[in-house]
């Protein structure tokens, strides 16, 4: 059975996936440092509690975070970070960011984002591992692919692997879209 929004939020707080955890904040700040080298205009799909957004905003980036979880949005707002639900989002940016999110979405949902947001870069990380059926179900892991499968999937949208990264996870990838360039 999949976790409710509240259970998911409470669990992330309990394991320290929050900007109030200095180690997690520093990890997201490291991601923000990489991002700002390529882009100052970012849309994050699956913004969680807004930690990366907070780091990017402090670095002078234009940030738009999309987060369906009401508890995550409320938490981010309490820290001054405005996150948006799934209704209406900008149609272009320099970089799309999605960290540990796409394993929770169907290919059709991912397609909707990639077809409707023009972007030159895409910063991506998604767990390539199945764990137990119960764990994957609780976390809502419905779309786990290997690194090569994701690379091939994104190539269908014009995104080519540009660079392998190690932050925030060992399976982080930076893609460049040779077909679309925005500023």
What features would you describe in this structure?
This protein has one domain: 3-Layer(aba) Sandwich (Rossmann fold), CATH 3.40.50.150. Helix 5 links the parallel strand 4 and strand 5. 37% of the residues lie in helices and 22% in strands. The N and C termini lie far apart (43 Å). It has a seven-stranded mixed sheet, with helices on both faces. With 183 residues, it is an alpha/beta fold.
Task: List strands and helices in order, with pairings.
Blueprint: H1 5-14, H2 22-36, E1 41-45, H3 51-58, E2 62-66, H4 70-78, E3 83-84, E4 92-99, H5 107-116, E5 118-125, H6 133-139, H7 147-155, E6 159-165, E7 172-177
Parallel strand pairs: 1-2, 1-4, 2-3, 4-5
Antiparallel strand pairs: 5-7, 6-7
Helix pairs in contact: 2-3
**CATH topology, which one?**
Rossmann fold
Structural class: alpha/beta
Under CATH, the homologous superfamily reads Vaccinia Virus protein VP39
Number of strands: 7
Overall geometry: globular
By CATH, the architecture is named 3-Layer(aba) Sandwich
Query: Reading side by side through the largest sheet, how are the strands ordered?
Result: 3-2-1-4-5-7-6
Largest sheet: 7 strands, mixed
SS field, number of helical segments = 7
Helix proportion of residues, in percent?
Answer: 25-40%
**Beta-strand share of residues:** 15-25%
Spans of at least 5 consecutive residues whose pLDDT stays below 50 are: none
